[in-house]
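TICKET: design request
STATUS: open
ATTACHED STRUCTURE:
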């Protein structure tokens, strides 16, 4: 699949700091010091509805991770998937009486437009579940042949007990795992499973549903977790730097994915940091396609809202916090954007050298965007007060805000 066009990231004077980021697996901060090429996998959308503020907030967090790395003069190898076949997508297509392929294509196209407008850096490999199937089948066969997977009425399940490290991403109790498994696409109550938590790797073809050649597995379609693992291992290999997504992916998705990968390769861990963004809510409840309480990026764009203001609204919250989208959040961002643009439009101003370092420090400190925004606010206030005659300052502020925060002033 093709991704979307990259916006240019200006180079800044000096060098950024290594990223210290919260790792869900260890429950603490890790300092990531990748080699010359940092590797990141971020779970992509299930394209059955438009990009909402929750998605945008999560992709914003991982865009910042890359901007911090780029500022340290590293290259970034970024992989993202599209879950372009899965139960919710098929169910929505049936509900609306439309073709599931067309639905996935339409919503993926809209996602690309939204990401472009928000200046999110594109992945180098943007891979659909369907196109990954030829790579998924042999992995499932290997798991089955090694005894880490078993068949149940034609479906193939992964045996979580095959991975001695199972549970070490979420660190959740068995009770909580069971509860979340039922809520998030698992089937803990299906009779005949070895462990109620075991997730499906390959679903045998069902009447009226799409299916693919599964070689010795028989016709069917892949499970959700093995999809991301196959794509990540193919394009990044084991031990990559960051596995990213929203906090609703901690369990089962990232727990199971890590277990699949670790069992397949015998290596541990799959990722050096498991990084999770908080949930964005609307009217007190998590914004979700299934609940339908959504604010769409595309709708705001159609209403004439500047994408830079949308991005600033996302940045005004710390990525790990759960937060509530309100009109006021957007209004504040629109006003802030106006103040910043006015400040950089002058021919000179107060020196911005310290500001660049403050931005670097804030972002490398577990992506502390509220502190970063406050630093730019202070520079803009000084500028408004008429301080400073540095004629390189407004340009440097523009470049720093663009390079580190993805906001075009
Ligand atoms: N296709 C799978 C991942 S492989 C999936 O979860 N798709 S999704 O469309 O449901 O979500 C895409 C990303 O947005 C995920 O990282 C998810 O955690 C995140 N996300 C979904 N809803 C919210 C929300 N309300 N707030 C923050 N992030 C969210
Ligand atoms: Zn995923």
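STATUS: resolved
RESOLUTION: sequence designed for all positions
ATTACHED SEQUENCE:
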């Amino acid at each position: 699949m093709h991704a979307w066009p990259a916006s240019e990231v200006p180079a800044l004077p000096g060098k950024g700091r290594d990223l210290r980021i919260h790792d869900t697996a260890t429950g603490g901060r890790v300092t990531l010091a990748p080699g010359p090429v940092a590797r990141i996998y971020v779970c992509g959308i299930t394209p059955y509805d438009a990009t909402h503020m929750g998605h945008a907030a999560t992709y914003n967090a991982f865009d910042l991770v890359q901007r911090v790395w780029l500022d340290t003069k590293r290259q970034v190898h970024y992989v993202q998937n599209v879950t372009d076949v899965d139960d919710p997508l098929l169910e929505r297509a049936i509900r609306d009486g439309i073709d599931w392929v067309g639905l996935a294509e339409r919503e993926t196209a809209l996602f690309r437009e939204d990401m472009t407008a928000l200046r999110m850096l594109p992945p180098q490999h943007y891979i659909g579940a369907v196109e990954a199937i030829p790579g998924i089948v042999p992995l499932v066969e290997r798991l089955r042949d090694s005894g880490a997977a078993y068949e149940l009425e034609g479906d193939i399940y992964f045996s979580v007990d095959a991975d001695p490290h199972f549970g070490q991403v979420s660190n959740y109790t068995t009770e909580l795992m069971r509860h979340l498994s039922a809520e998030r696409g698992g089937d803990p109550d299906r009779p005949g499973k070895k462990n109620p938590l075991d997730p499906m790797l390959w679903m045998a073809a069902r009447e009226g549903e799409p299916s693919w050649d599964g070689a010795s597995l028989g016709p069917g379609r892949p499970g959700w977790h093995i999809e991301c693992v196959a794509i990540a291992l193919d394009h990044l290999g084991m031990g990559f730097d960051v596995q990213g997504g929203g906090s609703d992916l901690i369990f089962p998705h990232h727990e199971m994915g890590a277990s699949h990968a670790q069992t397949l390769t015998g290596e541990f861990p799959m990722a050096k940091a498991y990084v999770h963004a908080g949930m964005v809510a609307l009217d007190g409840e998590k914004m979700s396609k299934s609940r339908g309480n959504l604010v769409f990026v595309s709708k705001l764009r159609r209403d004439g809202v500047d994408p830079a203001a949308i991005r600033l609204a996302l940045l005004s919250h710390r990525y790990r916090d759960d937060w509530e989208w309100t009109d006021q959040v957007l209004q504040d961002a629109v006003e802030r954007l106006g103040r910043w643009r006015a400040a950089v439009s002058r021919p000179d101003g107060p020196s911005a050298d310290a500001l660049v370092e403050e931005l670097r420090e804030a972002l490398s400190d577990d992506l502390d965007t509220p502190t970063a925004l406050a630093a730019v606010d202070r520079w803009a206030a000084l500028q408004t007060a008429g301080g400073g005659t540095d004629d390189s300052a407004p340009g440097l502020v523009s470049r720093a805000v663009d390079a580190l925060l993805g906001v075009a002033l």
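CLOSING REMARK: The chain is about 45% helix and 15% strand. Residues 43, 81, 228, 253 surround zinc ion (ligand 2) (CB under 6 Å).
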